[in-house]
Design goal:
This protein is an alpha/beta fold. Helix content is 44%, strand content 17%. The protein is built from 12 helices and 12 strands. It has helices at 3-27, 36-48, 93-114, 133-139, 191-205, 244-265, 285-297, 307-311, 318-324, 344-349, 353-375, 377-392; strands spanning 52-55, 64-68, 73-79, 116-122, 148-150, 153-155, 166-175, 214-221, 232-241, 268-272, 327-328, 331-333. The protein has a 6-stranded mixed β-sheet, with helices on both faces. Strands 8-9-7-10 form a 4-stranded antiparallel β-sheet, covered by helices on one side.
């Protein structure tokens, strides 16, 4: 029996448990850095499969590392499992988590035979947008010694190398002074006006942004009563750009818009967060093509990029991993269209038969990809050499 067949045989024995895992995580959504149930369930499943599991790694209570094999090529498979506020697993992280576990278990079965070390890394808080799980894990050495990383993400349709751009998220706070809105308004400093000035400035700024830049946000507090001049207002904003270099430029411009609100009204401004942004994803095209070939062998089809697919622009902290080690982040279709990621309708699609099929196909395709990487001598040489160079840079 060849290595791929051996991995597939092991994977098939875990299918029921993997689908149960996906459905359990979906039924118990947990926000970033609070994923206690999901992290425990994933770590337990991998421990039962014989992995050397380390929990609470890098001082993150819901992060873990599970390792098997001792081959010269060390591959990380990233698991995400946090949800979105109010709409649960509308990005399908339950599917991602189950796929990662399945891929790890299947690859581990033949790891020593093919010269592979496989680590499933539990990466919390992908949805938080700043100083997230993967960013902290990178900083604290969780990916040290690993030569490549991969994960597969659900979407309405298959995409091999989706458009994943840099992003920074931050909170804005204005402090003014209360006053009676009718009797003595001149005694107040209106923090809500500061936010209005800032949002107007951002609207005017859009003419001078690149077509690929994105700025979007919400007001999280606008005041307490209409007859009291608001002394405290706040907002949460997100800025995106094609790459991490362009992100710095647009973020500086947007910050100036918030500064304008403070100057115009006399309010005090505080901006919190945004100091650890998400990088754009740099794909390793050779590994992407290996994944594509294995996914197609399981019946997955990759359509031509449509204008809708080309204009998609999302962000992930997997981009930061891709700057550190060669990485892939393909999308796997769950036949949800017109429902798309971050919609409540997509949440419902993430436990359908199509979603379950994605768990099984994506997990096995990743395992097969890892096996091919380990048995491809030129690729192994490139990965081990390039990762060593990055580590010493």
């Amino acid at each position: 029996m060849d290595a791929k067949a051996g991995a597939q045989e092991r994977f098939r024995k875990s299918e029921k448990e993997l689908l149960d895992l996906s459905h359990r995580i979906h039924a118990h959504p947990e926000l970033g850095f609070e994923e206690e149930k999901a992290a425990t369930w994933l770590a337990d499943e991998l421990s039962d499969a014989g992995f050397d599991v380390k929990r609470n790694i890098c001082d993150l209570p819901t992060a873990f590392s599970a390792r098997a094999g001792n081959g010269p090529l060390h591959i990380a498979i990233c698991a995400e499992y946090d949800c979105l506020p109010a709409i649960g697993h509308a990005c399908g992280h339950n599917i991602i988590a189950a796929m990662a576990v399945g891929a790890g278990i299947a690859a581990a079965k033949v790891a020593n035979d093919v010269g592979l070390t496989v680590s499933v890394i539990g990466t919390p808080a992908e949805e938080v947008g700043n100083a997230s799980g993967k960013i902290i894990l990178l900083e604290r050495g969780a990916f040290a010694g690993m030569h490549a990383a991969m994960m597969v993400h659900p979407a309405p349709m298959e995409m091999l190398e989706a458009h994943l751009i840099a992003a920074s998220i931050f909170d804005v706070y204005y402090t003014g002074k209360e006053a009676h809105s009718s009797a003595f308004p001149e005694m107040g400093i209106n923090a809500a006006d500061a936010l209005t000035v800032a949002q107007t400035s951002i609207g005017l700024l859009r003419q001078h942004l690149r077509p690929t830049d994105r700025v979007h946000g919400i007001i999280t507090h606008g005041g307490d009563a209409p007859n009291v001049v608001p002394a405290h207002t706040s907002a949460k904003y997100m800025v995106r750009a094609e790459n991490i270099q362009e992100l710095d430029d647009v973020r500086t411009k947007v910050h100036r818009c918030f500064e304008a609100g403070a100057i115009a009204t006399g309010s005090k401004l505080e901006i919190r967060g945004g100091e650890k942004p998400y990088a754009d994803v740099k794909y390793d095209h050779e590994i992407s093509l290996i994944y594509k070939r294995n996914a197609e062998a399981l019946g997955r089809k990759f359509p031509e990029m449509t204008p809708m697919m080309q204009r998609m622009a999302a962000s992930t902290d997997m981009g930061n991993v891709s700057y550190a080690i060669p990485s892939i982040h393909p999308m796997i279709g769950i036949n949800s269209f017109p429902a798309a990621n971050h919609q409540p309708e997509f949440t419902a699609h993430c436990v359908t038969p199509d979603a379950d099929k994605a768990v099984l196909d994506g997990g096995l395709a990743m395992a097969w990809t890892a096996i091919e990487m380990a048995t491809n001598a030129p690729l192994c040489a490139r990965l081990t050499k390039s990762s060593g160079a990055r580590a010493s840079a």
